[in-house]
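Replying to the earlier thread about multi-chain prediction with a worked example.

Input:
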Amino acid sequence: MEDGLLYYPGCTLKTKASDYEESAKAVMEKLGRPLVEMDDWYCCGAVQSLSTDDIMHQIAPIRTLCCAQEQGETEVVTLCDMCFNVLRRANTRAKENEDDLETMNEFLDEDPDYEGNVETYHLFEILRDMKDEIEKAVKRPLDDLKIAPYYGCMLLRPSEVAIDDTEDPQIMEDMLELLGAEVIENPKRTECCGSYHTVNRSDIVEKRVEDIVGRAVEDGADAIALSCPLCQFNLDYHQRATEFEVPVFYLTELMALAFGLDIGKEIGMKKHRVEPNALLKEKGYME
Amino acid sequence: MAENEDEEQEMIEIFAMGKKYEVPKGLTIMTALEYAGYKFVRGCGCRGGFCGACATVFRKKDEYKLRMDLACQTAAEDGMYLVQLPFVPAVREEYDIEEVDPEEHDNVLLDYYPEIARCVSCNTCTKSCPQDLDVMDFVQAALRGDIERTADLSFDCIQCGLCTIRCPADIKHYHLAQMARRIHGKYNQEYSDELQKRLEEIEEGKYDEKMKELIEMCEEDLRERYEERDMQGEEEG
Ligand code: FES
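Result:
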């Protein structure tokens, strides 16, 4: 693929997190490396399986990597942290463990075997190597905004698949600086948001949100930036149980805003609970 | 003894519910079972591969794998193990078609069939489909809220249910897909003026005479008419 990046969306980006997909597509188009969706792809399974005999659960992500292979590609980029984590862990296992790969291929049966030659990336890893392009694309620096980055778990743990230092990541801080924003150091940035407890134990998630958002506010943040759709949902939606009303952006939404893209005008309007218009108006980013 | 003028009918051996029978070669699984004396009360309909009532499982000689297909469309082979399968009563969700506007839901198919999120991409459904549909692919399309793709990929589904009885995740593929096609038809596709016109014509009795003529025809004439029919219909009416 010339300049484009083979893109694996995952299901959430097509439903709850369409804000993320739209802004990321616009941003990458602008940066000259458009996201090109795979011809075929499958749900990754959303959570890495923890059972001992779990090869069956690796088939879904491996099947998607096979699709990339059959398309003649060697790299796949994802936006969702969960998908990224599942794909990279399954891939690492297949690459490093011949026996497991063989069993996976037996499960794949009549379909083509996975040869283990595809690399999986999170969008942030691509953006990390595009500092010059990002700097050049900034039209409207975010210098009136104080942003606290939030990583959650899936980008950093376990360390074999981490995109950055597990204890002291800087990837988002660096990018926010390029956008001109004031970065709020956030000691809670690698703590868990409560994850799937959101399904039946919202009390747990609410405590986490209180803690994480509370600390960001205390340190003076206007907003939070992240990339995981589940973290976004939890930190955004569950603020309703707290006293806070802090917008939670996908980093790509802030990029779209800083690049002055059309889509920047409607960021966070479609799927976010805490609407960012008040903040963006106050700071003069929106009419 | 002198050989018969007519060629002797070649026979094959099948096992029905474990019991050995000799049946003529060239029968389908369905007719072979009937030849052996089994009566189809359910699990049989059109006998033409369209209704999907006759889903069955079988084993071939010297194979350990269970195979699946339509009993009315699959030739019985020597050494086959056959069964009569109870029909497929998978649970169908009830919904009011007026209340499933895809614009009003994040993912309306997932709301009604949440078990599709359990798909582990094993592809067993695709392998069991007698219509050769990409069953797993349409389940995956449903999971990501792509109603059009679900409807398109499942268009030739005859609702036999083989995918569903084989699925380790309890997904009801064929009901899910039917819902997708209904939603797609109602909310995404253009309304057909021609259809409305035709319905009105029927109500007004425009075709009553012709219908009566057909009803009174003898089988031979009917067959001739059927064979000479125009598949596309003429431009005007
Ligand atoms: S009886 Fe109708 S499809 Fe076989």
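The interface with chain A takes residues 106-107, 110, 117, 119-123, 127, 136-137, 140, 143-146 of chain B (CB under 8 Å).

Feel free to reuse this layout for your own posts.
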